[in-house]
Design goal:
The protein is of the alpha/beta class. It folds into two domains: 247 residues, Type I PLP-dependent aspartate aminotransferase-like (Major domain) (Aspartate Aminotransferase, domain 2, 3-Layer(aba) Sandwich); 120 residues, Aspartate Aminotransferase, domain 1 (Alpha-Beta Complex), CATH 3.90.1150. Helices cover 35% and strands 17% of the residues. Helix 3 packs across helix 4. It starts with 24 loop residues before the first helix and ends with a helix. The N terminus is likely disordered.
Length: 395
């Protein structure tokens, strides 16, 4: 989609994050329509899976209708069931929390670190001090329930530091399901997992290709795993658990969770542009850091130094006592100037369906929500757009 509006025109709108449909997407979708391969089978589904696996370094990639479906299936494959518990971040989009509930389990909420990610130190402290290991499983001392899994979410594209967590979870028979929905293109540059992409460090990893992600398929998700049996089971469950697809024999309850060929065609076209998008994203981040850093009371949240980041969204940090305005006042000023922003998610341990669930020493997450704002981060942003945003921030 081409926007012919001048980026400096005051009447123009700067969106938070728009897809960049500038490659072969139209060509590939037209081929699907011309050949009638439009549903949950076709060459583009297989091609998208193969290319995502190759790009991330995972041995297997299984396409799903969306990232939430990928999480739901991954949790089920990890043994999450009714009456057990899963450790999750308090600060993330609600999808992984809902996916835990879909499997009949309860979340245990953990605090956020300086990068908005799962606080690994508090998570390790909780496992060491608030659980017991017996009969080869880990149990919550407070509830007596088995803790089956932990879901680290790589928020804003920021890699979670996984070294110690993976080791402890291996010792405690706790599965790790990575939510890498926002972090396609982020990989570890230091530590035990140097050179590995987010989503490939746990038993299973999940991606999202929603319209606002770094690349889109108009929807869609992906399960990543190195385990062939889990990959086969994921394909089985996401196609309604058809044991015999000719005679329609079903021995388990499955789901209609497979990605359509049309969506996959868009995804293939988008993936061809990912390297270029990542390069543009890095430049946008660097411009924001430099220009916002000159404004008293404002800064850009820095990315972890142990990973190469995809810079999906840039987060403005606000010190109201220095800047003179709080988050809500600034958001309104920007909106009045045609600049779309959004606050960080409302913490999940405050959400009505989950307010009675266990939350462990959550302090930083609430402060981050109150003092942060998501800035426009589309790969199509040009320097004039950023200058305009900075001009408004300067008042």
């Amino acid at each position: 989609m081409t926007d012919h509006r001048s980026p400096t025109a005051k009447t123009s709108h700067i969106s938070l994050h728009e897809p960049s449909i500038t490659g072969n997407e139209w060509t590939y979708v037209k081929e699907c329509l011309d050949t009638n391969w439009v549903s949950s089978a076709g060459k583009y589904v297989e091609k998208f899976e193969m290319q995502i696996a190759e790009y991330t370094g995972a041995k297997h990639a299984i396409a799903c209708v969306n990232g939430t479906a990928a999480l739901q299936i991954s949790l089920r494959l990890s043994g999450v069931h009714s009456g057990c518990e899963v450790i999750v971040p308090a600060l993330t989009f609600i999808a992984p929390i809902n996916a835990v509930h879909y499997n009949g389990a309860d979340p245990i909420f953990m605090d956020a670190d300086q990068h908005f990610n799962l606080d690994i130190q508090k998570t390790i402290q909780f496992i060491n001090e608030e659980t017991q290991f017996k009969n080869e499983f880990t149990y919550n001392k407070k509830t007596g329930k088995q803790i089956v899994a932990v879901v680290p979410v790589h928020v804003w594209g920021n890699a979670v530091w996984m070294d110690e967590l993976v080791q402890l979870c291996n010792e405690r028979n706790i599965e790790i399901i990575e939510d890498a929905s926002e972090s396609l293109g982020t990989w570890n540059s230091h530590g035990k997992f140097k050179g590995r992409h987010t989503g490939t460090l746990g038993q299973l990893g999940c991606l999202s290709f929603n319209g606002n992600k770094i690349i889109t398929a108009g929807g869609g998700g992906m399960i990543l795993t190195d385990d062939e049996k889990l990959a086969d089971k994921a394909r089985y469950l996401t196609t309604q658990a058809k044991k015999d697809p000719i005679r329609y024999i079903h021995e388990e309850i499955g789901y209609n969770f497979r990605l359509s060929n049309i969506n996959a065609a868009v995804g293939v076209g988008q993936l061809e542009q990912l390297d270029d998008i990542l390069e543009k994203k890095k430049k946008i981040y660097q411009q924001y850091v430099e220009k916002v850093g000159q404004i008293n009371g404002l800064s850009i949240s820095l990315v972890p130094d142990f990973a190469d980041n995809n810079h999906w969204l840039n987060i403005l940090r606000i010190e109201p006592e220095k800047y003179g305005k709080d988050r809500d006042a600034l958001m309104k000023i920007l909106a009045d100037e045609g600049i779309q922003t959004r606050p960080v998610w409302y913490p999940n341990h405050f959400q009505k369906p989950y307010k009675d669930c266990q939350a462990y020493h959550i302090e930083n997450a609430e402060h981050l929500v109150e003092t942060s704002l998501c800035l426009p981060s589309s790969s199509q942003l040009v320097e004039e757009d950023i200058i305009r945003i900075i001009r408004v921030l300067n008042g």
